[in-house]
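Sequence design from tokenized structure. All designs in this work follow the same two-part layout: the structure record, then the generated sequence. An example of the structure record is given first.
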């Protein structure tokens, strides 16, 4: 498990680094043979995820396989052939579904290893059961190393392209324009505070507050029956900080106002971006044809 965890962390880092390189943000000149090859998963995989499917079929198949693998390991360790073979039957069914759902990945699985597990279990050779289960696990790890981060980004991250949020004038705008406006308001407040233009800072704070209120109304698009995610980022604590900001601007407390803006940038902007933007940007880089 630790080996897989480290591999996943390294691959995710490489994926994000490749985005930086592709946009020309790196100051280091890469060697011709140092490019990173990101494998895109077969398009047929979309059939087994929402919205093309009513259920997250692929994801739940992976969950079942993980549970079944653990059950086989534990019962093999207990030398419990009856329960081990029960879970082996379930595992074999779901393992073989991989190539049925995604024919391009037929070479990723090794059904003969499952047959070997059954044979070793029948012979009560639990040592070789464990050895063979490790070999099966390697087939899982190899595929995950190649595709798991990309699949997560493409099929398990939200698509905000159809999301509409009203601006301060009540006109609908897309998420990119909404974020640009919020960034503009944050910087305008800080510029005005730095130059002693308190009235401009106060006016912009009111627009900023309204824009955040409009943004919060969009959270229910994903968090349908859960108030906590909205409350954590755009809830009472944020509202109180903005009220305190308005009060300090009116009193001419520049340093305190600047400090509050820094807190808002961390607890609202950075917190939201860390949750939503990183994986969204990765998704967009993998699906350039989706960009408008």
């Amino acid at each position: 498990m630790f080996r897989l965890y480290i591999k996943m962390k390294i691959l995710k880092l490489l994926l994000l680094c490749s985005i930086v390189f592709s946009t020309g943000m790196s100051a280091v000149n890469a060697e011709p043979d140092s490019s990173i090859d990101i494998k895109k998963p077969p398009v047929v995989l979309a059939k087994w995820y929402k919205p093309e499917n009513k259920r997250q079929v692929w994801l739940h198949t992976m969950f079942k396989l993980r549970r079944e693998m653990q059950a086989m390991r534990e019962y093999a360790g207990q030398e419990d052939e009856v329960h081990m073979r029960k879970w082996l039957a379930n595992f074999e069914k779901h393992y073989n579904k991989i190539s049925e759902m995604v024919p391009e990945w037929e070479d990723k699985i090794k059904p003969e290893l499952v047959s070997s597990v059954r044979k070793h279990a029948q012979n009560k050779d639990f040592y070789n059961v464990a050895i063979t289960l490790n070999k099966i696990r390697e087939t899982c790890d190899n595929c995950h190393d190649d595709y798991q981060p990309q699949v997560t980004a493409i099929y398990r991250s939200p698509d905000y392209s159809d999301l509409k949020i009203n601006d301060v004038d009540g006109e609908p705008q897309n998420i990119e324009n909404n974020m640009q406006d919020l960034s503009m308001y944050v910087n305008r407040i800080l510029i005005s505070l730095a130059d002693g233009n308190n009235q401009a800072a106060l006016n912009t704070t009111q627009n900023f507050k309204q824009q955040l209120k409009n943004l919060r109304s969009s959270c229910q698009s994903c968090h349908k029956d859960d108030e906590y995610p909205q409350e954590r980022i755009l809830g009472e604590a944020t509202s109180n900080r903005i009220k305190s900001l308005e009060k300090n601007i009116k009193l001419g407390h520049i340093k305190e106002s600047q400090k509050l803006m820094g807190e808002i940038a961390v607890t609202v902007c950075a917190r939201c971006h860390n949750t939503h933007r990183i994986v969204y940007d990765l998704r967009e880089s993998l699906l350039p044809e989706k960009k408008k």
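Confidence is low (pLDDT under 50) at residues 1-11, 13-30. We note this feature because it recurs in several other targets discussed in the main text.
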